[in-house]
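Sample A.
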Amino acid sequence: MNRRNKPQTEPLSQRFSRWCDTARTSLSSNASSTPNQSRSFRTFWHNLPIMHQRILMVVVPLYLLVILLPSEMFSAKQQPSAQERVEVSVSPRSLAETDVEIVTETPAEPQWKEYTVKKGDTLAQVFRVNRISMADLNALAQIEGEDKPLSRIKQGQLIRFKYDVEGKLDILQIEKGTDSVMFFRLSDGGFGRSK
């Protein structure tokens, strides 16, 4: 019977069984294999429950694939343990004799940024324009004091900001006539005020 003429509705287990029979007959070229052996396998296969047949059709090819693949693909590169000795090359020259240029990076000096209050500006707008978090504004408002220098900003007033290396507000200075009020970040992340 030609393969093209076979209906495609044939169960998968029968197709696998036929494939196993074909493979077995082509591989067994010696005289020791008999037709009775192939019949016994076929009867064994058909006696298995359908679910077992399907599981075997998936597991057996995967098992063969894993066996045939090189073992390096599955084994991780072994790192020497703390107790193993590892060969290390050592130069006879001392560190003082080597010509190594040591470059140290100096962090960029935090810069002051100035902002002049415009007509109609609120403190929240000033903080948004200068990219300062509202959480910092809230923390500053809590320690503002009775004279309320933050709440009573006026047009033309100068506000200076100094950021730390991470870009967070470090110091806030508000000019009030000839005086100024400073707010500064504490080590705990909160703010303090100069009198």
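Sample B, a different protein:
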Amino acid sequence: MAAVASMPASFWASSPSVPTKSRTTFSNVKSRLSLPLNKSHSFSNFFPTFPSRFSLRSSGFSLTTPISASSSSGNADYRQEPATKVKFQASLSIPGCSESLSLVGTGYREKVFALIGVKVYAVGLHVNESIFGKLDAWRGRSAAEMMKDSFLFETIFKVPMEKSISIVLVRDVDGKTFWDSLNEAISPRIKSPSPDDETALSTFRSILGGRPLKKGTSIVLAWMNSAQMLVCVSSSSDATTPSSVDAKIESANVTSALFDVFLGSNAISPSLKASVTNGLEVALKRRP
């Protein structure tokens, strides 16, 4: 873990490389890493604390992999993100939001480094279902067509209805490292920050930068409208959903940049964007 924690912030921020042929996993190490390799390798040069050799098995990968089948825990209905096995609530109630939001798609954040694919967190998009009524122009289009249409995601963002990105860490991450990586993704999307932008970024930094983020911690970014966003962080790794609002971000540039980080043309989680388009295709077909 020390080796991973010492990686530069750019390791976590840049867009992931997505293997197109095969993905392999190993079972004799804690299930936090996915290795894009086809045979056994020695990793002692990269991570000295790892066993020197692994037995690996191949598994397929596709950007069009749908959300796995639902499961129930108590009274809640969940959908499992396939790669990380993280479960997201199908209907999510967020502090500060007027209505429950419905899950559209899930994915994960991964960066390949020195032949090792490191999964950092799982991520899910929830929206107010009324948003679907604003997307009739895309009704009947395939997920592949929607995936390439940036105007679709701009429309979803601009619709003045609540939507959220839920991040669930699948490994321990230092708060400063997490913020630095996120800020590196945000900064290129804001060419000339205004004083309001700087204030919003400072607020964001103060929330995330000063705390350790343990495996299982949830971070929810909830857009009230295109210029206002709530930030909620779970108080412990055992909490499935944050119970309070940690901050309100009021900056159209920052809120727009954050949405673009996850669902824009250069999204940091291609698997999330693909899953969302699959979910939208199904949801729009079901509309009366």
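Observation for Sample B: DSSP finds eight helices and 15 strands in the chain.
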